[in-house]
Amino acid sequence: MAIKTSDLNARLFGKTNKRRATTPQEAQQAAKEQAQVIELAVAGEEMVAFELMRIEADQVETDTVVFAENAREQSFLNEHALSDVLVTLRERGQQYPAVGRMREDGKIDVLDGSRRRMSCILAGKPFLIYVAQNINTEHAKFLSDVANAHKPLSLYEKGKEMQAKLESGEAEDQKALAKMFQCSEALVSGALKAADLPLELLQAYPNVADLGRPTIVKLHKQFSQLSHADKGMLLKNCRDDDGFAWQRSAAQGVARITKDVSEMIEAWVEELSPSKRPASNKVDLIKGRVSYSRKGANLALNLKKVDDDVMQEILSFIEAKLN
DNA sequence: TGGTTTGCGACCGTAGCTGT
DNA sequence: ACAGCTACGGTCGCAAACCA
């Protein structure tokens, strides 16, 4: 039996009236009135008491840490990756408290809510969390895994988990992984490639969770063709004094920034290791309007801003020429 | 100006192919 | 023969374009 944040809230605020508090102040008030400490069975075993705590914004980073075995890669959590949480957090405060355990050194291990934790740090908002005193590491891992079901992990994070299953022998091969993770073999292939890429490269993107298999496969191909030294150069480009590559993009929207970053990386790779025979030997005939590419005996034409009359003339010419 | 439509790009799974 | 990869087709979401 899993324990979820939503269950905790149901206990705290009453199942019929979901939740009425709209600000952290209200939430705390409600907590004081109804239950500052609640007891729940963790993983269907012993009852554990959880105390609702409020961590002030400037202390979140120092007083709490993310559970070490959490599969979520913390360095990917930036304003883009957290945009879904940040919008409501800024407007109305934290809607659902996180769940954690007290460590021996007095810090709080965040088990469920690492995205909310980072959002509070970024937005400068107080962090609400239910804290228990005695949760062993096994139960902590259980809570952490259940929590990660809320927001799917990125391909990189899935790939890291898959790698671990392969190394431990829990999974024999990629087929077994596909069964275990309930996904296609193609996705397993992509996830493992993602996990094979260095963190610094992926951090060039605004939101790693947005990177799908095709993007990862392409990136992996580009990266793996580089020599060791060139890989280092590329990673240097991904993060300079100004920050990550995505921070240098002027594009609007995560999708566009992502595309921008892909193009930046592609250009860097090309610069470092020019392909012997250009992948696409595209030639600009009239800049911005007409280009063509030649591959073997094939010719591909690309025309822009062509009206119907001109199109008809061109097609007729081709027809007459090649018939 | 705000709501709706359209078009593009990126995703995923399936099926078939390739290399060991 | 089999594990893993790639190409293809259908689907979805986002942003630009359009219209009232």
Can you give me a brief rundown of this structure?
The protein has 323 residues and is of the alpha+beta class.
List keywords for this structure.
alpha+beta; 11 strands; Arc Repressor Mutant, subunit A; 3 domains; 14 helices; about 15% strand; DNA-binding; three-stranded antiparallel beta sheet
Strand content is: 15-25%
Number of domains: 3
Number of helices: 14
| Main pleated sheet | 6 strands, mixed
Instruction: Write down the overall geometry.
Output: elongated
Round the mean pLDDT to the nearest integer and report it.
Answer: 75
pLDDT below 50 for ≥5 consecutive residues: which ranges?
1-24, 276-280
End-to-end gap? 72 Å
What is the share of helical residues? 40-55%
Organism: Vibrio marinisediminis
Protein name: ParB/RepB/Spo0J family partition protein
Keywords: DNA-binding
Family: Belongs to the ParB family.
Describe this structure in words.
The protein has three domains: 3-148, no CATH class; 155-272, Orthogonal Bundle (Arc Repressor Mutant, subunit A), CATH 1.10.10; 283-322, no CATH class. The chain is of the alpha+beta class and 323 residues long. Helix 9 (185-196) crosses helix 11. The protein starts with a helix and ends with a helix. The protein contains 14 helices and eleven strands. The chain is elongated, with a radius of gyration of 26 Å. The strands form three sheets. It has a six-stranded mixed sheet. A three-stranded antiparallel sheet has the order 9-10-11, with no helix packed on it. Strand 7 (239-240) and strand 8 (243-244) form a beta hairpin. The chain binds a DNA duplex (20 and 20 nucleotides) through helix 9, helix 11 and helix 13. Belongs to the ParB family. InterPro entries: ParB/RepB/Spo0J, ParB/Sulfiredoxin_sf, ParB_N. Residues 58-149 form the ParB-like N-terminal domain. Keywords: DNA-binding. One of its GO terms (molecular function) is DNA binding.
